[in-house]
């Protein structure tokens, strides 16, 4: 079913506007609270949450919305949703607090458990704001600018994953979290052919794969469905895949009571050499993961 182009333009404009609200808070002092799971929550998470909920209600009235900052919605209710919005208003809250710019606003449309459309907006990158978006089967795109004229003027570029290079000629590029799952990431990398690594916060890791700047993102540490759905749609639309680590089947949403994802790997292309490395990392002592 997906979503029409004119609605996509309105949604991107709305996400950029929410990004501008977030940036106002980023540049001033802000409150930080602790959530029940001990993760931090800032004023910016809530400002983006409210802005994105209002946007979705306006653009697609009647389509249910699940946001990281919504109250819990029982599985008995959600399992009846054939189509819904899954929102992470501010992914990389710890990076937002650290002030390193590696945070994103995330909007995914999920149909029958499959993320089919996604927007990831990074308002605070060193070169200025960037938005990635993609619709499965119709391509993925990258545009620069914050929606208010800053950094604008460059055309939207179609993006595509890159062909996995011969590592003897060009090392594979592997991306990982700054903070989570470092030990398992290292076990995985040790079993790979020639490669370089980069750590970066939030769903930006997937966007690097979608635009062919990275080849692999192994995630052998917890995430929730809102952390991955928008970026999975973009990676898939760009020709890549996001696969459960154990089964190498595409990651799916809304299949169970818990919203936690299994371990997964995002890739531009499958290759037996990294699949062996992944199996080794999964076999490693769980305490080191
Ligand atoms: N123990 C845990 N359980 C569930 N999700 C976790 C987690 N530790 C980290 N995360 C998720 O990892 C995200 C950060 O990813 P990364 O480490 O790649 O930057 C967080 O996003 P939020 O900032 O939206 O909370 C959070 O959802
Ligand atoms: Mg998140």
Structural notes for this entry:
The chain has 289 residues and is an alpha+beta fold. It folds into two domains: 155 residues, Fructose-1,6-Bisphosphatase, subunit A, domain 1 (Fructose-1,6-Bisphosphatase, Chain A, domain 1); 117 residues, D-Maltodextrin-Binding Protein, domain 2, CATH 3.40.190.80. Helices cover 31% and strands 25% of the residues. It contains eight helices and 14 strands. It has a seven-stranded mixed beta sheet, sandwiched between helices. A hairpin with a 5-residue loop joins strand 1 and strand 2. Helix 1 runs antiparallel to helix 2. The longest helix has 22 residues. The chain is globular, with a radius of gyration of 18 Å. The mean pLDDT is 96. Magnesium ion binds next to strand 4. The site of magnesium ion has 3 residues, from strand 4.
What features would you highlight for this structure?
Fructose-1,6-Bisphosphatase, Chain A, domain 1; 289 residues; binds magnesium ion; 31% helix; alpha+beta; D-Maltodextrin-Binding Protein, domain 2; 25% strand; three-stranded antiparallel sheet; seven-stranded mixed sheet; binds adenosine-3'-5'-diphosphate; EC 3.1.3.7; 2 domains
Secondary-structure topology with pairs:
Elements lengths: L4 H22 L5 E3 L5 E3 H17 L5 E3 L7 H4 L4 E9 L1 H6 L5 E8 L2 E9 L7 E6 L3 E6 L12 E3 L12 E5 L5 H9 L4 E5 L4 H7 L5 E4 L5 H13 L3 E4 L19 E4 L4 H12 L6
Parallel strand pairs: 3-4, 10-11
Antiparallel strand pairs: 1-2, 4-5, 5-6, 6-7, 7-8, 8-9, 12-14, 13-14
Helix pairs in contact: 1-2, 5-8, 6-7
Adenosine-3'-5'-diphosphate (A3P) binds next to strand 4.
